[in-house]
């Protein structure tokens, strides 16, 4: 009966008795504890030996340790830097320039590789025979060639282009020569910075407004449109801030002056070759991930969407890809990490990223351990940040069982 109480003797009979650990090697519990203690002791002993051996060798060779060298004058020329830098600055600032150069490649490369890889992955499933075969050839060729070979190939191709006077001019304000790629650039002023800050604030406000709208819809069942608020936060607010500060808008157009092309935005041959190689190589892997994710969606989903009268493009965007993301995101995270770590091959074509600058620094100062530790710390921080964000996003789109 529902009101009856359970017999305590029956509850005790059903309880699994706990086994007492015996001081015998035949006891698996004791063996497990002993092996764990032994392994931990060996790991601690190995670390202690490495540290003591390193300290002894440094003392014998009279090599100073520590990170005090970071505040000494670097005397290191760096061709590309996103922040102000001169050889009279410290090693710390030089390494900071290297970190920013690495992030410049990684972030832009991830965005472009994702777009290109998604397009190629969808094209591989196209009913157009030629488009599908060309996409398959791209994937198989680019994926099977070593990345370093591809970087050297693209760098040699850019070095073989004509000089600035005979530069390729495919569009207005676009020049491609052995000096790199020249593009029109916006003259950045404080008003643009404030407008960007307003856009970021609007992005956060849109996120919280959307959450509030969804919560109210779950409570009363009435849908509330989010796009008017998003339009106000993401468009009207930044434009209003930009207009209130004078609405500056000056485009710097590159043009041939003398023996070189002056003005505009410059992508050096080293950066352009590195970015091109990383994007094309990683996009081949992303294309296969996207293709497998789309194929993992059940055929019934396609048929049900088509039965509702949706066009193929709508089916892909609204029905298939949102479900495929649950399969795509985990392996896509690995490709983002691979692209970031593969950017360290920049040293082979002369692009000064964190690896190149840290190697020069440790050669000048002799602080090899500190230099390697800095490189490891930078890549570990970037990789963990990417992993945390992608894991958070993967959890956001995961199916919730009820």
UniProtKB/TrEMBL annotation:
Keywords: Amino-acid transport, Cell membrane, Membrane, Transmembrane, Transmembrane helix, Transport. It is found in: Cell inner membrane; Cell membrane. PROSITE patterns: ABC_TM1. It is a multi-pass membrane protein. Gene3D superfamilies: MetI-like. InterPro entries: AA_ABC_transptr_permease_3TM, ArtM/GltK/GlnP/TcyL/YhdX-like, MetI-like, MetI-like_sf. The keyword Transmembrane applies. Its main location: membrane. One of its GO terms (biological process) is amino acid transport. Residues 99-390 form the ABC transmembrane type-1 domain. The chain crosses the membrane at residues 29-51, 105-125, 191-209, 230-251, 271-290, 372-393. One of its GO terms (cellular component) is ATP-binding cassette (ABC) transporter complex. One of its GO terms (molecular function) is transmembrane transporter activity. Belongs to the binding-protein-dependent transport system permease family. HisMQ subfamily. NCBIfam families: HEQRo_perm_3TM. This is Amino acid ABC transporter permease. It comes from Roseomonas acroporae.
């Amino acid at each position: 009966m529902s009101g009856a109480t359970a017999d305590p003797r029956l509850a005790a009979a059903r309880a699994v008795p706990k086994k007492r650990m015996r001081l015998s090697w035949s006891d698996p519990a004791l063996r497990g504890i002993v092996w764990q203690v032994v392994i931990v002791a060996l790991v601690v002993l190995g670390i202690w030996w490495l540290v003591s051996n390193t300290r002894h060798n440094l003392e014998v060779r009279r090599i100073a340790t520590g990170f005090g060298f970071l505040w000494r004058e670097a005397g290191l020329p760096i061709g590309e830097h996103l922040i102000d830098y001169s050889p009279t600055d410290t090693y710390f600032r030089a390494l900071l320039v290297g970190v920013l150069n690495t992030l410049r490649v990684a972030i832009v490369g991830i965005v472009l590789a994702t777009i290109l890889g998604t397009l190629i992955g969808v094209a591989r499933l196209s009913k157009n025979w030629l488009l599908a075969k060309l996409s398959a050839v791209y994937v198989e060729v680019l994926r099977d060639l070593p990345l370093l070979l591809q970087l050297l190939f693209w760098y040699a191709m850019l070095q073989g282009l004509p000089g600035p006077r005979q530069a390729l001019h495919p569009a207005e304000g676009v020049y491609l020569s052995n000096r790199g790629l020249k593009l029109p650039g916006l003259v950045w002023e404080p008003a643009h910075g404030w407008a960007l800050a307003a856009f970021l604030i609007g992005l956060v406000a849109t996120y919280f407004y959307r959450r509030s709208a969804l919560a109210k819809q779950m409570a009363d069942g009435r849908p509330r449109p989010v796009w008017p608020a998003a339009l106000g936060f993401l468009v009207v607010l930044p434009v209003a801030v930009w207009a209130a500060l004078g609405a500056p808008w000056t485009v710097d157009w590159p043009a041939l002056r003398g023996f070189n092309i002056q003005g505009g935005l410059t992508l050096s041959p080293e950066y352009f070759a590195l970015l091109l190689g990383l994007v094309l190589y990683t996009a081949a892997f992303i294309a296969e991930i996207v293709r497998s994710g789309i194929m993992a969606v059940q055929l019934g989903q396609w048929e049900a969407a088509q039965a509702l009268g949706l066009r193929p493009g709508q089916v892909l965007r609204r029905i298939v890809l949102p479900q495929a993301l649950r399969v795509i995101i985990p392996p896509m995270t690995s490709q983002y990490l691979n692209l970031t770590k593969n950017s360290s091959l920049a040293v082979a074509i002369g692009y000064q990223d964190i690896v190149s600058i840290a190697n020069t620094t440790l050669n000048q100062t002799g602080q090899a351990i500190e230099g390697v530790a800095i490189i490891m710390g930078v890549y570990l921080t970037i990789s963990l940040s990417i992993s945390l964000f992608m894991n958070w996003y993967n959890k956001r789109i995961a199916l919730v069982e009820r």
